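To illustrate the input format used throughout this study, we show a single complete record. The first block contains the structure-token representation of the backbone; no residue identities are included at this stage. The design step must infer an amino acid for every position from geometry alone.
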């Protein structure tokens, strides 16, 4: 479950807007460097798939829902365009062992494929796994065709 705070929690230079994982993970921004997570008290900029593993539950909600919630925080909303969406989707599409997160990533993308920066790069490098359900494989193939990769 993800809960957005009623106001930003300021711990300059960090600004926190949401918690997930029963409060063990916080989502926010560094005022100069961009999006970050705080996991069990340790703060880290979101830079790789390992960092995004903590954000995968965002994919259980809609893309519109996330961005609508971000907009309610004035300090953080200026970082909206820099949200690591392509990295999050890549993490989900490359998550080992299950097609659950791949399916959630496809739901998230929906009709917004053209609006997601760097999505074509994510899809270009994506290897479709035979272990995924046929429906997931077909959806990914169709998405790749639609964005021209």
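Output of the design step:
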């Amino acid at each position: 479950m993800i809960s957005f705070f009623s106001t930003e929690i300021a711990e300059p230079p960090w600004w926190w807007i949401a918690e997930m994982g029963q409060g063990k993970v916080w989502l926010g921004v560094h005022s100069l460097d961009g999006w970050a997570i705080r996991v069990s008290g340790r703060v880290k900029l979101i830079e790789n798939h390992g960092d995004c593993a903590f954000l995968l539950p965002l994919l259980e909600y809609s893309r519109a829902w996330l961005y609508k919630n971000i907009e309610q925080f004035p300090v953080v909303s200026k970082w909206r365009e820099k949200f690591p969406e392509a990295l999050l989707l890549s993490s989900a599409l490359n998550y080992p062992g299950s097609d659950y997160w791949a399916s959630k990533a496809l739901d998230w993308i929906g009709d917004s494929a053209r609006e997601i920066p760097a999505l074509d790069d994510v899809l270009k490098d994506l290897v479709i796994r035979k272990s995924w359900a046929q429906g997931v494989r077909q959806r990914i193939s169709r998405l790749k065709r639609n964005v021209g990769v």
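Structural context for interpreting the output: The mean pLDDT is 94. Helices lie at 49-52, 63-71, 74-77, 85-93, 100-109, 119-124, 134-147.
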